[in-house]
Backbone:
């Protein structure tokens, strides 16, 4: 066995054996939740909770994040702005004013975008959606204000919440304990004065794909211009448990489309063309889930030539450099209002784009494919977004007679992983017998037993409240800043301003000072499905706020953070997308592997020409998010197709297409991340927005593509409109560019932050014999890995 063979085997072993929440492409990615106590109340404090998604490419999509914790004592939430607890809990012991939540383990969710203004705070009301840090850092932040009662009223008496949980919107995040940090400092708008929070604690949540799902949720197929064969997704890539209920022709059980791979999403990578100095790839993402579309989807690809990506035609693109010295990973995502939503399985259930990369003559080769198809990381570390996370910050803004008011802010610091509809769900456990008196910008899903309360009844009396974001159309008096987006959070890389969600919560029966407040614990975050694991709440320096006129700074009375990280393995044991390849130099199309996303839905999928698609309500999502996939060989909700389209003298062009095969889900704010060594020389992306992702700074081989607003940032449900596509033009690097050995295909592909299943390397399109004499071939071929992480649940 050659040394290269040993290297491939070792890579596979290492990547499959990890169990920790570590993402090699995003080693520092996490969700940081900071609680800034802004003021003390007679029985607690008011805090602003800020969540920052420091994950490079993992956003929190709708229905958004759900942040939970357990109070250290008997704290309650008197009120909240910008968020709400999804359960009120038992507030029966209260007379008169009733807390917003009395649950000891409240779960908070973001308010929807259209929540009333008097319920909003800064960075709230986004429906729990947090953009990834790499996609849009301004939208990777979420915050809310919470008033906590029955808590400590000084720094010495406040007890930090514990057992933080972060769901964004599914599982996968594990949160560490809350840790007290230096109080956050706030600068006034005029920059002449600085204030600071009374107390601040922070919680860091990291994501593990293994926790989110034990099986992949997508698969990858490959094709190339130089080979007529199409490498499909591997059979049962996403498990074949759904093969008995996927939708076949004549069967009316709307779930996944029947395919061999049974994956909700298929990403197809097609080496489209080979020019003198450039080569092009077409990427297509296809959704095979008839019940789910992907908003703010992201696709992450790793390929050594992504450091010279010249142009991405229809997706937005960002290079990811998690290790600074390596630039071989890219984030792709849809352009807003164009192809950022990957629709449900059907004619419109796909998006695609072309990618052009400049050749590196030292590495590019299409003669012999030696790409290693790597399984999803079982831990919560994303090598393309090492710092990506969902950070939930609790800023105690004021104390109440029996608790405090806090602003809870969730920031999606994942560069390309967002939280799409139905948005995040945040839960936690109260450390004592806290209740939530009120929430602004969010709400709890259950009120709980509040029978012991007379007069004012808390919003939630459950000890383990679960919060969801409010919908955009809520009254203004229920809104909070950055709330009310239906739980949808954009990824930080795509839109930082839309990656934040916040709400205000009033906690009762809690500490009324920094010393008596007990931090919530056991935080859970669904985004909207599993995959996120949240660490415990940690006290951090109090958040400092700057007034609108910049002349004064204020600070939270107490702040703690919870960080939630994503693991695709936790989210789903099967991929949710797959990748296929094709090229201009070979008629063979490498399809997604058979059952790439598992064939669990094989027996209740629906054929693309079925008369059942004409039935009313066929595209209506179900509460359990059960997909209705188009019957395909791969059975993935999403397929990404990478086509190497053209090869010019100094440039080469790739077309990327993302197809949605889910008839029940469209994808808003979709993201696609690709890793390829030529992404460092992206010249033009035609139809997508593109951002290079440089998690390791010294390596510029990763980019994120996403849809253009109001053009293709929505990937529609499966059907004629269920696809988005773009072309990428890349300048060649003559030292590395080649079309041999599968060099033109991405090393990693992520859709909505989840890894996609790729076909076996030996099925990649190859150069014809006559084309092997091209001057671009080199003996040192690149061993590369292709991943796609897709956050949907």
Residues:
């Amino acid at each position: 066995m050659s040394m290269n063979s040993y290297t491939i085997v070792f890579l596979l072993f290492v990547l499959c054996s990890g169990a920790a929440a570590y993402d090699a492409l995003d080693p520092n990615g996490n969700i940081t939740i900071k609680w800034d106590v802004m003021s003390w109340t007679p029985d607690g404090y008011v805090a602003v909770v800020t969540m920052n998604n420091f994950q490079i490419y993992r956003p929190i999509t709708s229905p958004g994040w759900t942040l939970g914790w357990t109070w250290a004592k008997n704290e309650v939430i008197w009120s909240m702005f910008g968020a709400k607890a999804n359960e009120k809990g038992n507030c029966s012991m209260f007379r008169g004013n009733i807390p917003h939540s009395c649950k000891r383990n409240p779960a908070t969710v973001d308010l929807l975008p259209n929540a009333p203004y008097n319920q909003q705070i800064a960075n709230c009301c986004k429906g729990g959606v947090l953009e990834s840090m790499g996609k849009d850092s301004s939208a990777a932040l979420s915050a809310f204000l919470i008033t906590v009662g029955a808590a400590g009223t000084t720094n010495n008496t406040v007890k930090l919440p514990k057992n933080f949980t972060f769901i964004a919107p599914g599982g996968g995040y594990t949160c560490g304990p809350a840790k007290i940090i230096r109080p956050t400092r706030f600068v006034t708008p005029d920059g002449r004065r600085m204030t600071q929070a009374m107390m601040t604690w922070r919680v860091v949540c990291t994501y593990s794909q293994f926790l989110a799902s034990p099986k992949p949720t997508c698969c990858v197929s490959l094709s190339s211009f130089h080979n007529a064969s199409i490498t499909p997704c591997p059979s049962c890539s996403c498990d074949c448990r759904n093969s008995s209920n996927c939708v076949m022709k004549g069967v009316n059980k709307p779930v996944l489309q029947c395919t061999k791979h049974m994956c909700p999403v298929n990403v197809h990578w097609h080496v489209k063309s080979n020019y003198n100095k450039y080569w092009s790839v077409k990427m297509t993402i296809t959704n095979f889930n008839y019940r789910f579309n992907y908003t703010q989807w992201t696709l992450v690809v790793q390929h050594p030539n992504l450091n010279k990506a010249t142009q991405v035609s229809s997706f937005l693109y960002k290079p990811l450099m998690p290790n600074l010295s390596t630039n071989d990973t890219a984030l792709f995502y849809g352009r807003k209002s164009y192809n950022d939503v990957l629709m449900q399985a059907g004619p419109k259930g796909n998006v695609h784009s072309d990618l052009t990369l400049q050749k590196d003559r030292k590495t590019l080769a299409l003669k012999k494919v030696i790409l290693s198809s790597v399984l999803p990381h079982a831990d919560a570390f994303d090598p393309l977004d090492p710092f990506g996370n969902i950070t939930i910050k609790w800023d105690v803004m004021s104390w109440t007679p029996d608790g405090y008011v806090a602003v809870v802010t969730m920031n999606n610091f994942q560069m390309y992983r967002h939280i799409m509809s139905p948005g995040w769900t945040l839960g936690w456990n109260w450390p004592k017998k806290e209740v939530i008196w009120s929430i602004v910008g969010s709400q709890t899903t259950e009120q709980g037993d509040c029978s012991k309360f007379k007069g004012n009844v808390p919003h939630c009396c459950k000890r383990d409240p679960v919060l969801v974001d409010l919908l955009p159309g809520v009254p203004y008096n229920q809104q909070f800043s950055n709330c009310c987006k239906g739980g949808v959070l954009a990824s930080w890389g795509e839109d930082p301003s839309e990656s934040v969600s916040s709400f205000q919560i009033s906690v009762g029966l809690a500490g009324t000072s920094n010393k008596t407040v007990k931090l919530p614990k056991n935080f859970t975050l669904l985004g909207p499905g599993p995959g996120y694991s949240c660490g415990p709440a940690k006290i951090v320096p109090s958040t400092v706020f700057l007034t609108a006129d910049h002349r004064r700074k204020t600070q939270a009375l107490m702040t703690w953070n919870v960080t939630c990280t994503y693991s695709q393995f936790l989210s789903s044991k099967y991929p949710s997308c797959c990748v296929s390849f094709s090229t201009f130099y070979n008629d063979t199309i490498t399809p997604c592997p058979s059952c790439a996303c598992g064939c669990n839905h094989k027996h209740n999928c629906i054929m693309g020409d079925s008369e059942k698609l004409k039935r009313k309500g066929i595209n209506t999502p179900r509460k359990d998010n059960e997909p209705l996939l188009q019957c395909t060989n791969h059975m993935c909700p999403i397929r990404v197709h990478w086509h190497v389209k053209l090869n010019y003298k100094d440039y080469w062009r790739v077309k990327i297409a993302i197809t949605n095969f889910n008839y029940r889900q469209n994808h808003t704010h979709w993201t696609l991340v690709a890793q390829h060594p030529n992404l460092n020389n992206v010249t033009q992306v035609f139809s997508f927005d593109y951002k290079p992702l440089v998690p390791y700074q010294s390596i510029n081989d990763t980019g994120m593509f996403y849809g253009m607003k109001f053009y293709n940032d929505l990937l529609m449900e499966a059907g004629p409109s269920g696809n988005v596509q773009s072309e990428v033009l890349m300048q060649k690097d003559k030292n590395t560019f080649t079309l041999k050995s599968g060099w033109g295909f991405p090393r990693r592909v992520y859709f909505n932050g989840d890894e996609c299943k790729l076909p076996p390397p030996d099925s990649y399109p190859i150069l014809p014999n006559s084309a092997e004499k091209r001057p671009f071939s080199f003996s040192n071929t690149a061993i590369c890995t292709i991943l796609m992480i897709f956050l949907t649940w």
Notes: The first helix runs from residue 3 to 17. Residues 147 and 405 are 1 Å apart (CA to CA). Confidence is low (pLDDT under 50) at residues 1-20, 249-254, 366-379, 770-793. Residues 3-210+384-569 form one domain.
